[in-house]
Amino acid sequence: MPDAVKCARCGGLLAFELEDLGLSTQEVRHRFAQRRLSNDPLDQSGVWRYRDLLPPIEREYVVTLRENAVPLYQARTGASYTEARRLSYLHLGANPTASFKDAGMTVAMSQARQRGARVAVCASTGNTSASMAAYAARAGIAAVVLIPSSGISQAKMAQTLDYGATVIEVDGDFDRALELVRSLDPQRIALVNSVNPYRIEGQKCAALWLLEMRDWRPPDWVVMPGGNLGNSSAFGKGFREACALGLTDRVPRLAVVQASGAAPFSKLFRDGGELVPVKAKTSASAIEIGNPASWRKALREVQESGGVALDVSDEEIADARAVVGRDGIGCEPGSAAAVAGVKRLREEGVIGADEDVIAVLTGHVLKDGTYAAAYHASDARFANKLQRISDESALRDLIDSLQAVRA
Ligand code: F0G
């Protein structure tokens, strides 16, 4: 099991099953709560704090950057923009390498280290690569990243190179890069894309952490972007396990939002049948994925939760991203698909005005500064144009006009 990512019989992705902990619900809650008072690095990590629910990995092999202990913020501008009054952001961009990937990477890399892997490999649109490179550097494991020929954002590239990974640009898109890494012998390398079930185990902890921050009260909806669909399947698994342990009494409805130019899962949700891969094209480069590996797992989670899948245009994503910025928070384009999705689901009446909604922000605003700069230099709805002034009196006039607005 530990070295493989697919079932020898059916070729499907593998998954862990939760074992009986032999503890009461109260004991489990108490154990998790106690760990928040501890200075042990494993307890400070919002992943290893839930280690009873993770596959066994010896402490000496654990590579942690204290990931997944991220904030939950009330959305103000976002709430009025989407008309979802009780909207909050779970900001996974507040992770050590500034994306949600760290929660999964800490488990995948620790397991790779435990089994003595020397080389870790992934295909990536940029965030997995930055995360893998950082954790591999900490683990003393060589890292090799395959990126699409369309490139990755400058910031993600900078992180990946800084952390010392070897970066290879493939002749093709993300889907081709993933195909290439999946052709490698999994015994010889650690494949750390989300087809690796250890990644999913780590990422499910974001669902547990969200619930724990809310005193185990589930929201009505959790809305998140979907690309390769590992994260949606991980959240669904986390919520189901929290329910199975009695930590919470129901699973929130999951909404998975894709970019319209990379929306095979949204189409599958509408039409049924099997997933039909597409040639992906979107300016939200993180989610430019046309052949998502985890679609079966994600579909199960969406359906079991009573959720939905949908897609939104690049323009809706761009405006939603700017709105998250106006809340003093910010996120990268791929993450903003979640907020654009909330707006759409409110317009369609799928989400009610008073429902309790979490938008999962998967990556930090600084992940793509070029995109943000281009938006603000454009004529887009929330563009914040650079101002120029000629002299002191023009500056005073500007301040006066702002005072008048605030008055
Ligand atoms: N949001 C961001 C910021 C991402 O980087 C990704 C995926 C997703 C959402 C979608 O998550 O694939 O689990 O459905 N990024 C991958 C990468 C593919 O290589 O960084 P998913």
Content of β-strand: 5-15%
Helix tally equals: 15
Provide the spatial order of strands within the biggest beta sheet. 1-2-10-7-8-9
* Distance linking N and C termini: 64 Å
Number of strands: 10
Mind describing the biggest β-sheet? 6 strands, mixed
SSE arrangement, N to C: HHEHEHEHEHEHEHEHEHHEHHEHH
Average pLDDT metric: 97
Question: Topology, pairings included?
Answer:
Layout: H1 25-35, H2 41-44, E1 72-74, H3 77-82, E2 86-91, H4 101-114, E3 119-123, H5 127-139, E4 142-147, H6 154-162, E5 166-169, H7 174-182, E6 190-191, H8 197-213, E7 221-225, H9 230-244, E8 253-259, H10 264-271, H11 295-305, E9 308-312, H12 314-326, H13 333-347, E10 356-361, H14 369-377, H15 392-406
Parallel strand pairs: 2-10, 3-4, 3-6, 4-5, 7-8, 7-10, 8-9
Antiparallel strand pairs: 1-2
Helix pairs in contact: 4-5, 4-8, 5-6, 8-9, 9-11, 12-13
Structural description of this entry:
This protein has 407 residues and is α/β, with parallel strands linked by helices. It has 15 helices and ten strands. It has a six-stranded mixed beta sheet with strand order 1-2-10-7-8-9, with helices on both faces. A four-stranded parallel beta sheet has the order 5-4-3-6. Helix 9 links the parallel strand 7 (221-225) and strand 8 (253-259). It is globular and about 70 Å long. The termini are far apart.
